[in-house]
Amino acid sequence: METNAPKRRDNKKSLRVKVISLGNAEVGKSCIIKRYCEKRFVPKYLATIGIDYGVTKVQVRDREIKVNIFDMAGHPFFYEVRNEFYKDSQGVLLVYDVGLRESFDALDSWLGEMKQEMGSQANMDSIVFIVCANKVDLTKRRVVDEGEGRLWAESRGFHYFETSAQSGEGINEMFQAFFSSITDMCENGGKRPATEVSVGFTKEQADTIRRIRNSKDSWDMLGVKPGATREEVNKAYRKLAVLLHPDKCVAPGSEDAFKAVVNARTSLLKNIK
Ligand code: GTP
Ligand code: MG
């Protein structure tokens, strides 16, 4: 099976890896990289045109890692340029802006775009993903909270960090964890270590909690059509209750989601004859 195993240079202790940045335009991908590599922040927005490329060297334990960074443009216009660069990556920085819900919701389609270019899930499994909830310095405009972001990331076996390219918060810690995980993966034969994905809850549970949080009314919350019968409501309720019961589900937010489902069912049943 094909893996994204990095090229080793002559010296056995040194590794060369490729990382890419992904996420909507203007979420702060270039600024995060600049903050780490150049220790500075540029407040003015300069859209990345296609791809920016840079190299940095880092030390992880006894290894010297040469990191090739491909900073992608988030604008849909550059799809044709981006799709050339997904292959052979060992690490992906997935970035969203905590003040823009659509940038968080877009993470799934970024994964979709990448998967399409990678050809198979197996290739996606040999990549370290790190999710950056960026712009946490702008506290007043925050709309995606930590629980929601962490749940999305950890349910997929991805790391989660809160970052601010502006203040520098979380940036070094995030990159250290990123490079250290990539090194672990390389030492593990190009496979993401299994421990990272054992978070104690399933992706289905995490996705359901997220869907419930974002639902627009009680029908939507239970996943039934408006005007559904008592039986349909009860059936949908039972399915969700089994999935999210606090005795069975340890995912963050499961208790609130369970309560919301109970309340939704009660209020719907009140109005159905
Ligand atoms: P594309 O290259 O178009 O895909 O955008 P990008 O994701 O690379 O965004 P970029 O890094 O260029 O940043 C976009 C804007 O957000 C700029 O005006 C930055 O100054 C600002 N910005 C980036 N990170 C932060 C942050 O952590 N906090 C604040 N307050 N602003 C930020
Ligand atoms: Mg950019």
Automatic annotation (TrEMBL):
It is found in: Nucleus. Belongs to the small GTPase superfamily. Rab family. This is DnaJ heat shock protein family (Hsp40) member C27. GO terms for molecular function: GTP binding; GTPase activity. Residues 217-273 form the J domain. One of its GO terms (cellular component) is nucleus. Transmembrane segments: none annotated. Its main location: nucleus. The keyword Nucleotide-binding applies. Keywords: GTP-binding, Nucleotide-binding, Nucleus.
